[in-house]
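Board notes, transcribed. Complex of a protein with adenosine-5'-triphosphate.
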Amino acid sequence: MIEFQHVSKAYREVKALDDVSFTVRRGTVTGFLGPNGAGKSTALRILAGLCRPTSGTATVLGRPYAKLERPGFEVGTVLDAGAQHPGRSGREVLTLGAMLLGLPKSRVDEVLRLVGLTGKEGGRAVGGYSLGMRQRLGIAHALLGRPRALILDEPANGLDPQGIQWMRGLLRDLAAEGCAVLLSSHLLHEVEQVADHIVMIGRGRVLAQGTVAELSRGRGLEQTFLELTANADRSAS
Ligand SMILES: Nc1ncnc2c1ncn2[C@@H]1O[C@H](COP(=O)(O)OP(=O)(O)OP(=O)(O)O)[C@@H](O)[C@H]1O
């Protein structure tokens, strides 16, 4: 389970997050939606232990990331698909990750297969990968330790329609196996198709949360999103 409890984060005068609370239960996919600058990446970075909240707590399986005993087996993160060393092959990146977790090399082949990268692609330098291939590699890396929670920042970025459909299937399968999946996006239609639960944020505050049906209010998610974010902008100005 993933839980944000009253999380706020200020960067000097910018309030990136303001009293954010929500929960992602095991076995569900939660879409974290918000316009540019809403605070999505900041929230995911706090959850992944990459920056500290000003106040409040963000936990995975009941603990802040820094207090997890075996983070590689508990939570997988893909926050920046471009973060891998460009000179290493995809297979080398995964092999290093597997070694750090004490996993056999066979797990590298398993995750390559799981994300649809061929043996030949796995052997190529990451610097020559397309954005879609990097996303797949990032997900393969995150899944090495079969984590029980998965955090993805804009995972559909760079994926073609087949890739997006594949990603949807993968995330649904992981949730069906009991994983708690949290993904950020501003692609409403994409999230609508994969998520059970939606959390909408704007200007650092949770604007609404609920099931896709609840938030669609019979008019579609996009309409609700546009109205809520416009209201948030109005009350901030
Ligand atoms: N390191 C930082 N220093 C100062 N301000 C920051 C920093 N990181 C984020 N911010 C500010 O915090 C706010 C939220 O940014 P964040 O990147 O979390 O939004 P986002 O919802 O992920 O946006 P996008 O969809 O554009 O990626 C923005 O106003 C941003 O300028």
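Residues 215 and 221 are 6 Å apart (CA to CA). The chain has a mean pLDDT of 91.
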